[in-house]
TrEMBL record:
This is (2Fe-2S)-binding protein. It comes from the Bacteria. Belongs to the adrenodoxin/putidaredoxin family. It comes from Roseiconus nitratireducens. Residues 2-95 form the 2Fe-2S ferredoxin-type domain.
Length: 120
């Protein structure tokens, strides 16, 4: 089982293949935002990788980061990442202080839209 370390929260064993956004909320108990429900449209589920950033990304993630002009080394959309290896992340977008009424719409178990994998 991969280990997920969330800066300031702790380290957790995660079911292999689980979406990172779901692991952050369900396993780590964080208030990670995911306003669009995990379909790579809003960028509210951004995290910054400290270690273990996956080499591949979905085309949807790449397109959304580019369109929203989200830059920065290691900044990724947690809704588009499967937990397949040990990783360490810093939360960027949290419910606390956001002014939103909730963290977001329900997130499916599988990456949506169906992933087309590319290099980051």
């Amino acid at each position: 089982m991969p280990k997920l370390t969330v800066e300031g929260v702790g380290t957790f064993e995660i079911e292999e293949g689980k979406r990172l956004v779901k692991a952050l909320v369900e396993d780590a108990g964080t208030d990670q935002l995911h306003a669009c429900g995990g379909v790579a449209k809003c960028t509210t589920c951004r995290v910054e990788f400290v270690e273990g950033e996956p080499e591949k990304m979905t085309q949807a993630e790449k397109d959304t980061l580019r369109a929203r002009e989200v830059t920065g080394a290691g900044v990724r959309l947690s809704c588009q990442i499967a937990c397949e290896q040990d990783m360490s992340v810093k939360l960027i977008s949290r419910l606390e202080g956001s002014g939103r009424k909730d963290a977001g719409s329900p997130v499916a178990d599988q990456i949506e839209p169906p992933p087309v994998w590319t290099e980051k």
